[in-house]
């Protein structure tokens, strides 16, 4: 067992991803060194989570077929009250974020190439219709990059950053919550990354650079918004070679997270079932560690100064990697959770 402990009053919310009655939004707490899970809501293919900046409200995306859904729940202890639930007006919503004012919910409809904009009321519930911003673009891998495919949205200060796997782009938007619907977003810049990388998720480093996981290129990309593609450092995400172990013959990396001090990033190689650690303090990222995640298809990561948590979707398990000076040690069991696919610390 790991000695990982939540702070008093904290819980871990997990998107338990699948199609059975056991899947959905789950809450995990520690009691006498044991983990106890409670299913707060049953949801079909709950794929990502985000919290409101000031209210005890969590949002989620779900479903992977032609029509996705978005959700809002108010969390009170081990209970979740549904505030809102509706169509995402697009296919395969995969990531969701709330603007810093708490007035807009923004999400990526991956397959249908749109950003959804949903206004929120004072309680954090949906207010009015979903409006869509249509993205366009393509990349050299025609099977996966035939069109724009936004995969992640996050805020860097007041700027909305959109990682577009299909178009090999980092898109930046100014956001004005006082404006209605899609007019709240104004694209301010597009930054092309090395072609064929298929950028999936990114984090902001302390010096303003971005570190991005390349799903199609199986690489780590580091550069500044506005840099030309050739100015981006890009290095392999793994030392493993040959066919991947899980789901596909290709690696198809997933999530990336950074250490609180920004010196290291942690990178999930989903096909090889490993976690790579890079030192990104210099101009060129340096791979300093690659260890077995001990789960199949490590879908999502959560990093702190002392630990990295790993959600293993195909193993229905959460693992913890203790850190020593930013370098992970051997993965240890934390708890089993059906279809563990997304982690969110809750307090």
Give a verbal description of the structure.
The protein has 347 residues and is mainly β. The chain has strands at residues 11-16, 24-31, 34-42, 46-51, 57-62, 69-76, 79-87, 93-98, 104-109, 114-119, 131-134, 150-156, 159-164, 169-175, 185-192, 199-204, 210-214, 219-223, 233-236, 256-258, 264-269, 274-279, 286-292, 298-303, 307-312, 317-324, 327-328, 332-336, 340-346. Strands 24, 25, 26, 27 and 28 form a five-stranded antiparallel sheet that branches. The radius of gyration is 19 Å and the shape is globular. The model has no long low-confidence stretch (mean pLDDT 96).
Keywords for this structure?
4-stranded antiparallel beta sheet; 347 residues; mainly beta; 0% helix; 51% strand; 29 strands
Q: Could you provide a short overview of the structure?
A:
This protein has 347 residues and is mainly β.
* CA-based shape: globular
Mean pLDDT: 96
Number of strands: 29
Separation, N- and C-terminal Cα atoms? 23 Å
Output the number of helix runs.
0
**Low-confidence blocks of residues:** none
Radius of gyration: 19 Å
Fraction of residues in β-strands = over 45%
SSE order? EEEEEEEEEEEEEEEEEEEEEEEEEEEEE
Please give the share of residues in helix: under 10%
What is the oligomeric state here? Answer: single chain
Structural class: mainly beta
Query: What does the largest sheet look like?
Result: 5 strands, antiparallel
Protein name: Beta-propeller fold lactonase family protein
Draw up the topology in text.
Layout: E1 11-16, E2 24-31, E3 34-42, E4 46-51, E5 57-62, E6 69-76, E7 79-87, E8 93-98, E9 104-109, E10 114-119, E11 131-134, E12 150-156, E13 159-164, E14 169-175, E15 185-192, E16 199-204, E17 210-214, E18 219-223, E19 233-236, E20 256-258, E21 264-269, E22 274-279, E23 286-292, E24 298-303, E25 307-312, E26 317-324, E27 327-328, E28 332-336, E29 340-346
Antiparallel strand pairs: 1-2, 1-29, 2-3, 4-5, 5-6, 6-7, 8-9, 9-10, 10-11, 12-13, 13-14, 14-15, 16-17, 17-18, 18-19, 20-21, 21-22, 22-23, 24-25, 25-26, 26-27, 26-28
Protein name: Beta-propeller fold lactonase family protein
């Amino acid at each position: 067992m790991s000695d990982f402990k939540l702070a008093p009053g904290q819980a871990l919310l997990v998107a338990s991803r699948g199609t059975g009655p056991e899947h959905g939004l789950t809450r995990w707490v520690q009691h006498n060194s044991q983990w106890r899970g409670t299913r707060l809501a049953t949801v079909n293919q709950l794929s990502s989570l985000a919290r409101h900046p000031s209210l005890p409200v969590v949002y989620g995306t779900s479903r992977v077929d032609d029509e996705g859904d978005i959700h809002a729940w108010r969390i009170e202890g081990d209970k979740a009250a549904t505030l809102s639930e509706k169509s995402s007006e697009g296919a395969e919503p995969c990531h969701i974020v709330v603007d810093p004012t708490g007035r807009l919910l923004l999400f990526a409809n991956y397959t249908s190439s749109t950003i959804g904009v949903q206004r929120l009321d004072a309680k954090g519930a949906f207010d009015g219709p979903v409006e869509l911003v249509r993205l366009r673009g393509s990349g050299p891998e025609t099977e996966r990059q035939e069109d724009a495919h936004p995969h992640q949205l996050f805020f860097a200060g007041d700027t909305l950053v959109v990682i577009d796997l299909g178009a090999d782009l980092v898109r930046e938007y100014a956001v004005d919550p006082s404006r209605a619907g899609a007019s709240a977003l104004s694209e301010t810049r597009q930054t092309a990354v090395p072609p064929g990388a298929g950028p999936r998720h990114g984090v902001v480093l302390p010096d303003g650079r971005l570190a991005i996981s390349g799903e199609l290129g199986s690489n780590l990309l580091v550069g500044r918004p506005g840099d030309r593609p050739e100015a981006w450092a890009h290095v392999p995400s793994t030392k493993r070679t040959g066919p991947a172990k899980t789901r596909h013959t290709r690696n198809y990396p997933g999530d990336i997270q950074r250490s609180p001090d920004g010196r290291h990033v942690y990178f999930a190689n989903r096909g090889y079932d490993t976690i790579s650690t890079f030192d990104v303090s210099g101009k060129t990222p340096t791979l300093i560690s690659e260890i077995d995640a001990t789960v199949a298809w490590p879908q999502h990561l959560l990093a702190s100064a002392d630990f990295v948590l790993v959600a293993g979707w195909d193993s229905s398990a959460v693992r913890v990697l203790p850190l020593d000076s930013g370098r992970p040690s051997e993965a240890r069991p934390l708890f089993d959770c059906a279809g563990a696919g997304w982690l969110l610390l809750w307090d």
